[in-house]
Amino acid sequence: MKIKKSQAVGLKELIATLVVSGLLLIVGIVVFASVGSTVDTQLTGTGYAEATATVANVSSTTYDAFELTTVALIVLAAAVIIGILIRAFGA
Q: Is the pTM for the entire model greater than 0.70?
């Protein structure tokens, strides 16, 4: 399968994708932190322990997912760089 030059992803596209993805990551963290601080954790009654555990679990899982998105950005950059090298030196 032959790739045309117009179909290949270049360095400009990589930089644009990383910048946009990084900005979306920052906005997502800020929005989640803002929403997370408004969650009512002063619950009372029969479901207090379960509700508190659920809020803590959702917060922990979401922040773990945000940490993994940085790994996804690194993998994206590596994939494009490898593609550029393969295109430059032939495969």
A: no
